[in-house]
Design goal:
Length: about 575
């Protein structure tokens, strides 16, 4: 292991783990860009993991860049953190895309580098602009015109082939053709044409070259051959010098609003022995370990893993916990880590609505979890709810208020016995219907209606002592829906917003593209959706069936990997080790 502490060009104190700084000479040069600020990018394990994967190739050098801090003068060219070189001097500019609301930053960054926004306006001499990350494999179409290529799926399988076939300095079209034909998961938007019907829906999506008509998402069947851990420790992140370890990918529960729960199928977990090795590596560097995944408390053997470290002077944190998954070992690990706030996500207030979204948690389980957390010395709770879910009535909204009051009642009782009364933060989030979920066909709730519902909850709960409320801004959720459900024409709106310097009120007034068409329209099941060209393995008929069950408030069982074929993923061709 190579450890190196340094102050980088960005003047940030970092400890690099295992990455050897290399010269540029004769190497393929990647600028890996996170389209938001440093502390958010460095909190993202996916971003860190691609940085490590690329630097592990001897013939590749990868450096990082972030959205410039507002304090940086607007004319200062965007440079990488490691060598301070201009991004224009790299062979490839690779964007790591995790959140749709970062899309406007892509245009800002390309502008700052001095590159034309659209792929068809960039030439052979310009760096190749590459996109990857979860939002790009859910629906890359709203940003497709800005990218030369996307890698759709999990990086470990795509990057080796990409760096093998990419030819720096060669003809861009020929290079992209080789990539599209030879790299699994590669999608070159320019090689496909989209035709529209008179009503604005998609008529056809066709390849213009000899390239695959659909793009199959790549995923690793077996995670035990690869570790996904922090490549750099820094105090300037949400997880202050925490060594992050991915315990698994995917989630077995199938909550119907959650795209990650469908596009990362099947759920996969790493073996305990491998995770213990990763933790041992982490504790040789820091006393903070962060276990990351969509379903951390579902890890088989989690209790055993927590027990191994119960007498160590370390703090283990968990990125997600399900209310019914709080085992005594996990609670004791939380107590030991001196966590001040734990999050419970009931997501909906009423039992009926939790069945609609297939949350699979009863009110009693939520109350018991709140009790257990407080009894184990965690003083504060954060409760996560969604507003505007399909079939929601005012009674469901009021159920959020009722549930919060019940939790508060139990919380106070347990807190008194602990002689410490903490705080409950209620987080109200607007539901955005996402691609590749059973709710992909439904319209989003209108901004005015969301505002009213949020106000209703706020008006009551703000009077309750020890409860704080934090609510989404519905206008931003509307834009998120536009960016996640749009087709290629949404790129025009993004470009217009860039010319209006991010003034969305002016942009939405001036655009000739109707944003409501994407956000507020229920779609027919037969409609060709912008993201239908991606094959995630999950059958559309399964999503449709889940939608019908949602309308009847019928829950569905969690994944039963190895015994089940319901959604279609587990009978796909297996993909295995990275080459
Ligand atoms: S086929 Fe069954 S076990 Fe496999 S991902 Fe789909 S629902 Fe889960």
């Amino acid at each position: 292991m190579v450890l190196k502490s340094r102050k980088s060009a960005g003047q940030t104190n970092e400890t690099e783990i295992g990455t050897i700084r290399k010269s540029w000479r004769g190497r393929l040069r990647f600028a890996l860009v996170y389209p938001n600020h440093y502390h958010l990018g460095m909190s993202n394990l996916g971003f860190q993991s691609v940085y490590r994967l690329l630097n592990d190739y001897d013939h590749v050098v990868c450096e990082r860049a972030f959205l410039p801090e507002p304090s940086l003068k607007s004319r200062t060219p965007l440079r990488t953190l490691e060598s301070g070189k201009n991004l224009k001097d790299f062979d490839i500019i690779a964007f790591s895309l995790s959140f749709e609301n970062d899309y406007p930053h892509i245009l800002f960054i390309l502008d700052r580098i001095g590159l034309p926004a659209r792929s068809d306006q960039r030439g052979d001499q310009d760096p190749l602009v590459l996109g990857g990350g979860v939002v790009s494999f859910i629906n890359p179409e709203p940003i497709a015109p800005f990218f030369d290529c996307f890698l759709i799926g999990e990086a470990e399988l795509m990057l080796p082939r990409f760096v093998e076939v990419f030819e720096a300095g060669s003809n861009k079209h020929a290079n992209l053709l080789t990539i599209a034909r030879n790299v699994p998961g590669a999608y070159v938007p320019a090689f496909y044409s989209v035709n529209y019907q008179r009503d604005g829906t998609i008529a056809s999506f066709n390849p213009l070259e000899e390239v695959p008509p659909t793009i199959q998402r790549t995923y690793l069947k077996e995670l035990s051959h690869t570790a996904t851990c922090s490549a750099i420790l820094t105090s300037d992140t949400t997880f202050d010098r925490t060594f992050l370890i991915e315990v698994g990918r995917g989630c077995p529960h199938g909550c119907r609003f959650c795209s990650a729960g469908f596009v990362y199928r099947p759920p996969r977990f790493r073996p305990i022995s491998q995770l213990a090795e990763n933790i041992n590596q982490g504790i040789s560097l820091t006393d903070r370990i962060g276990l990351v995944g969509a379903a951390v408390s579902d890890l088989p053997g989690m209790g055993e893993l927590c027990n191994i470290y119960k007498d160590e002077d370390i703090r283990i944190s968990f990125s997600s916990l399900r209310a019914e998954g709080l085992s005594p070992e996990l609670l004791s690990a939380l107590r030991q880590s001196k966590v001040k706030t734990a999050t419970i996500a009931p997501d909906a207030g009423s039992e009926r609505m939790r069945k609609v979204i297939n949350k699979g948690i009863t009110e009693e389980a939520i109350l018991t979890a709140a009790d257990a957390l407080v009894a184990n010395g965690i003083p504060n709770l954060k409760l996560y709810f969604m507003i505007g879910l399909p079939t929601e009535t005012m009674d469901d909204v009021e159920a959020i208020i009722r549930l919060c009051k019940k939790i508060k009642h139990r919380f106070l009782k347990s807190s008194r016995s602990q002689k410490r009364i903490g705080e409950i933060t209620v987080s109200l989030n607007c539901f955005v219907p996402k691609p590749f979920t059973p709710f992909q066909w439904v319209a989003m709730d209108e901004v005015g209606s969301l505002k009213k519902k949020i106000q209703k909850v706020k008006n009551v709960l703000k009077k309750v002592p020890n409860i704080r409320i934090h609510a989404d801004i519905p206008r931003w959720a509307y834009l998120q829906a536009l960016f996640s459900r749009g087709d290629r024409r949404v790129a025009d709106i993004l470009q217009l917003a860039h010319t209006h310097k991010g003034n969305w009120a002016q942009t939405l007034k001036a655009t000739s593209v109707n944003p409501d068409f994407y956000v507020l329209r229920d779609r027919e099941v037969a409609e060709q959706l912008p993201w239908d060209f991606i094959d995630q393995g999950v059958k559309k008929s399964f999503l449709q069936q889940e939608y019908q069950r949602a309308l009847k408030a019928l829950p569905s069982p969690a994944c039963r990997v190895e015994t089940c074929n319901i959604c279609g993923v587990c009978n796909q061709e297996p993909q295995n080790r990275p080459s």
